[in-house]
Each structure stands twice: as C-alpha cells, then as structure tokens.
Amino acid sequence: MRISNLNAVPPFKEVVADRIWKAWWRHHGHLLQVVTDFFDALPLERGIPFALVAHEGETYFGSVLAVASDLDDRPELSPWVAALWVEPDHRNKGIGAALAKAARTEILNLGYDAAFLCATAEKRIMYQNQGWTLLEKSVGEHALDVFELSANA
Predict the structure, then answer these.
(1) 3-state class of 66 per DSSP?
(2) Domains of the chain and any CATH numbers
C-alpha cells in the first residue's frame, strides 16, 4: 500500500470526493460539486489544505484531508486532520491509522507545532491509542471530541 498526495494521483479525485460527500456533506443538502470544487482548488505546492490517498495501483483504500479549520466551535485551533475515510472492506487493517499519521507528519513537516482532529466519542479510544491527546469532550452541536497531537508526541 502507498499513501500519495492526491495531486500525484488525480484519477482518485472522483472517488475521494464521492466518499467525503456521502459521509459528511450529502445529509446537509450540499451538492457533490461542492466537494469536487474543493479538490479542483487544491494548491499544487505543499501547504494546507492537502489530501492524501491510500492505494495500491488503481485500488482505492481510503483518504484523509488536512484543512485549516474543521470545527466551527474551535476556530483558534489549526490545522486539522479531517475527513478520514477507509473503505468498509479495508477497515481494521491499520489503514486509517497510517493515513492519520501521514497527514500529521506532513503537517509537522510544514512547520506546525501540532495537528488537531475531531471525532465522535465512539472513536475516542482508537485515537488515544494512536497517541492523540483528548483536549475536550462533547464540543458543538454534534458533541465531538477534540484531540491534539503535538510535535513532541
């Protein structure tokens, strides 16, 4: 399995947009085009935002984003590991952990001191087992946990 920047593997753009839209945007009434437009606007140079794809050849396993802000209730925290998705048939194989680690590593390589992540309470143990520190519980309308992983971790 390889983890590549989406800019280096553009054929995956459509599937990544579809998974993000179905998981997080569709139920809010947003069009798929909103997500596709986001990927069309990704900068070619290194920086935030970026998208990473886990794949083997033409087989898509999952993806993750790094964005400046992912939780309206915590605008002071930045940048975020966001929209982590692993295909159902490939879950529980370490792909999600590898994607989160790759995103955090790139964020730190860009000169940031820490990365942040939000998730539902049922994912709490998983992220803590990966070294993320729980900062807050039950934040915002979706009662999300907020995690940090610093460069010192």
Answers:
(1) strand
(2) 2-112 (3.40.630.30)
